[in-house]
Structure to design on (250 residues):
């Protein structure tokens, strides 16, 4: 096939996978809207988190099979059933949370409070009892309570996708949560050379193929008495440990 025909075909296939992701999400949120008033809080949380994880896992199974979008996050498997754990990772792409949650079915994410009322995302997030960021104090309290009850917390300390490589400045909060919940912090590195769905990369633009992501475990930090000092220590550790990667092409 001529290159000028192949490129639109590959872009169409990639968009098709993202459309599939949207349909999986919509389907689960319709189910979650029905289950939310029927299930007790604890049971609803377990079902909600497992449902989101399995939905994302289905997406990655199909994406990997296509050969265009590949993800290797098996390094997370030993963490799967560990209670009371904070998982922090760098944030190169919009797909990062999907990778981590797909392998960690008991985990919760911090979400924008406005998304709780989004009909396409809110029902699933509410059923899973994801942590809302209405206020910093409320977010910390919710996260601590969730960790103490045996949950996991997935966080991206940069707060947004990476703009200044290797990592943006970390936002405070997760080291304080670790101290209050007496929860260890497991560092996770997401490695990719692809700019796709990174900061400033438009959805319609086809990147070099295949798009590959891999996940590796870093050091584990015990909660510290000085959360601010530990925040700086972990940020430095990320900056030193991330593999060099090329910035998005102009």
């Amino acid at each position: 096939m001529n290159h000028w025909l192949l490129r639109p075909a590959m872009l169409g296939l990639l968009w098709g996978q993202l459309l599939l992701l949207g349909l999986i999400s919509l389907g689960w949120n319709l189910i979650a809207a029905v289950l939310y008033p029927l299930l007790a809080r604890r049971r609803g949380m377990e079902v909600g988190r497992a449902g989101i994880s399995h939905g994302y896992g289905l997406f990655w199974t199909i994406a990997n099979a296509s050969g265009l979008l590949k993800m290797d996050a098996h390094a997370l498997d030993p963490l799967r059933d560990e209670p009371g754990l904070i998982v922090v990772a760098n944030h190169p792409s919009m797909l990062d949370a999907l990778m981590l949650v797909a392998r960690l079915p008991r985990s919760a994410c911090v979400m924008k409070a406005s998304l709780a009322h989004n009909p396409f995302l809110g029902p699933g997030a509410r059923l899973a009892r994801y942590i809302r960021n209405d206020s910093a104090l409320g977010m910390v309290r919710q996260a601590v309570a969730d960790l103490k009850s045996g949950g996991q917390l997935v966080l991206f300390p940069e707060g947004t996708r990476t703009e200044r490589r290797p990592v943006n400045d970390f936002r405070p909060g997760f080291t304080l949560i670790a101290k209050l919940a007496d929860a260890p912090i497991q560092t996770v590195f997401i490695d990719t050379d692809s700019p796709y769905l990174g900061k400033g990369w438009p959805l319609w633009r086809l990147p070099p193929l295949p798009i590959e992501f891999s996940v590796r475990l870093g050091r584990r930090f015990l909660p510290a008495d000085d959360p601010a000092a530990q925040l700086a220590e972990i940020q430095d550790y990320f900056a030193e440990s991330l593999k060099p990667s090329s910035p998005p092409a102009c």
